[in-house]
Input
Amino acid sequence: MDERFHRLLGDVDGDGRVTDLDVGAVDHVLMLGVYDPEADVNGDGLINVTDRVRITRAMGRKLADGLPF
Output
């Protein structure tokens, strides 16, 4: 039985890793002032500094090699 992850907390771009690219994606959405559910890290319906903090706390985490995502 395969198990799949929808998203690693803080992984906005869906590449299985939490990096500066994820922070940049949230910063971009914040700058534009639009809502993008991919950038709503904590799922509260808002894109704000809380989402950015969640990413920075998860920085460097990644899914184990070989896991499907």
Remarks:
- The CA atoms of residues 13 and 22 lie 6 Å apart.
- The helical segments are 20-32, 49-58.
- The chain has one domain: 1-59.
